[in-house]
Write a structure and sequence with these properties.
With about 500 residues, the chain is of the alpha+beta class. It has helices at about 1-30, 30-35, 40-45, 80-90, 100-105, 105-110, 115-125, 140-155, 190-200, 225-230, 275-280, 285-290, 295-305, 325-335, 345-355, 390-405, 475-490; strands at about 55, 60-65, 75-80, 135, 155-160, 170-175, 240-245, 245-250, 255-260, 270, 310, 315, 360, 365-370, 375-380, 385, 420-425, 440-450, 455-460.
């Protein structure tokens, strides 16, 4: 009998310990994670009664709550809504929560652990619950310039601008955009109707092309990573020469690679790495990539952030650079084709890392969290993500990019009195069922000033510029002009 009693006692005691541990994990360790879970409808419903904090740009609210006399107590408003939609997202009663409204929901709704004692004091003092505000890193001039430049030309694509030394995101634009006010009223019928219309729009305005959605072939902007890998590993310098044919039959393949010009890279029998970057030639870059270990460039890409889970705190779709299976794939991958896919944010990170002497800073769109009584609850400090290349390598790549502006295809990004580094890119997207070429994807990335970088930018334009350019336009000037405009907006301050 005593044996059975002891056994029962031990089992009950063990169960008590397990229960205590489980409750502790749920109430304290995992509390914020559970509250933030998008499946936790209780958190969202509770937040309807709270005056959510504002989302701020340069101290001005771009998303804020105003009182109503309905059952929801408040309605969320966005002003100017469409300009900042890829950043704010929307706060909806029936169609979910996106953007910073979702990523920073605990802070905006006042339900995070950091606000625990504030909630208790407010309850004791009879103060209505109120969320903290989120100050973003966005530069309003850069954001407005990016949105306007894309909209005026009717471009589909995205723009991302980063402060190289800190990782602060200065602009995050996706085109076409949408008005989040359409999804934030307190009328569920209107929200559902508006969401259905936006969701069915063939231009997909709800897709955040800057950090997510369908990834893009990077085309020639990916050559910066090939150059960085080669110089860092001692495989080449900017003056290293390569054979300069007009056509290259890929190893163990019938596929023929050509330069975009369909001619040689310059007029000589040999072409240097610098010439290949400045003139954006495919064949010398492919020859260089095939000379290196086939994993060298994908490894360099990962060091710059490819294939990493990243939040800014918006969730970012990882860019991918798979290991090529053979020399032919190595050649095609080296010019940003085949299975290489990227977000504009990732390409901006590449330029920012080069501009910052080889150090990539973790990008962020949040600067501060500010309590309702105007105390700084959280200050986001710069965090180093990686150091993929040395300063010597970064300087060498920078020199080639600067020549790309002064002498090469990125000339349209030149800014008077400012040293600018830049690289263009045109990515092919295969053919349709009838064998016709699909529209190109156009790129520009760069930074300025070279001697003290304040901004790194990436611009992608889908469909060769769209209807106005016959969907097949391959002009590198289109995204370059957008990039210049955004850089000027920051440098003019």
């Amino acid at each position: 009998m005593n044996k059975q009693l002891k056994f029962t006692t031990r089992v009950v005691f063990t169960m008590f310990i397990a229960l205590f541990f489980s409750v502790t994990m749920i109430q304290f360790v995992n509390a914020d994670e559970l509250r933030a879970n998008e499946l936790n409808s209780r958190t969202v419903k509770n937040s309807y009664k709270v005056e959510r904090g504002s989302i701020l740009v340069d101290g001005d609210p771009i998303a804020y709550s105003t009182p109503t006399d309905d059952s929801f107590s408040f309605v969320r408003q966005y002003d100017p809504g469409s300009i900042y939609a890829p950043i704010t997202g929307y706060f909806s009663h029936s169609q979910g929560v996106t953007g910073l409204e979702s990523a920073m929901n605990l802070e905006l709704s006042g339900s995070g652990n950091a606000q625990f004692f504030t909630r208790i004091m407010n309850t004791l003092n009879g103060v209505a619950p109120q969320g903290s505000s989120v100050q973003t890193t966005i530069n309003p001039k850069a954001q407005e310039a990016a949105v306007a430049a894309m909209a005026e030309e009717g471009f589909t694509g995205a723009v991302v601008a980063i402060e190289p030394k800190t990782g602060r995101i200065l602009a995050l634009a996706s085109s076409p955009t949408f008005d989040p006010n359409l999804l934030s009223s307190n009328n569920n019928a209107d929200i559902i109707a508006n969401y259905a219309q936006l969701d069915k729009d063939p231009e997909q305005p709800l897709q955040n092309r800057a950090i997510a959605g369908d990834l893009y072939h990077p085309g020639s902007v990916y050559k910066l990573l090939v150059a960085a890998a080669a110089i860092e590993d001692g495989e080449a310098t900017p003056t290293t020469e390569f054979a300069n044919p007009a056509q290259l039959t890929l190893p163990q393949s019938t596929s023929v690679m050509q330069n975009a010009s369909r001619t040689t890279c310059g007029t000589g029998a040999k072409a240097t790495l610098e010439q290949a970057i400045v003139m954006s030639c495919n064949i010398p870059i492919a020859e260089l990539a095939m000379k290196m270990d086939r994993g060298a460039v994908p490894e360099m890409a990962r060091a710059f952030g490819f294939e990493q889970e990243l939040t800014v705190p918006l969730a970012v779709t990882p860019s991918v650079s798979p290991l090529p299976e053979d020399q032919a794939q190595t050649a095609l991958s080296s010019i940003g084709q085949l299975d290489v896919r990227v977000t504009p944010l990732q390409i901006a990170m590449v330029s920012a890392g080069i501009a910052n002497g080889g150090t990539v800073m973790k990008p962020t769109v949040v600067d501060q969290v500010i309590t309702p009584d105007l105390r700084v609850e959280t200050q986001v400090s710069p965090v180093e993500l990686s150091k993929p290349i040395s300063k010597k390598t970064a300087d060498a790549v920078t020199g080639m990019m600067e020549k790309g502006v002064t002498e090469g295809l990125a000339a349209k990004s030149a800014i008077e009195g400012v040293r600018v580094a830049g690289k263009t890119g045109t990515a092919e997207n295969g053919t349709d069922a009838a064998g016709n070429d699909l529209p190109f994807t156009l790129w520009y990335t760069g930074f300025a000033p070279v001697d003290d970088p304040k901004i790194a930018v990436a611009v992608v334009v889908e469909d060769g510029g769209g209807e106005a350019y016959g969907y097949l336009g391959g002009s590198y000037d289109l995204p370059t002009a957008v990039g210049k405009r955004v850089m000027e907006a920051v440098l003019s301050e």
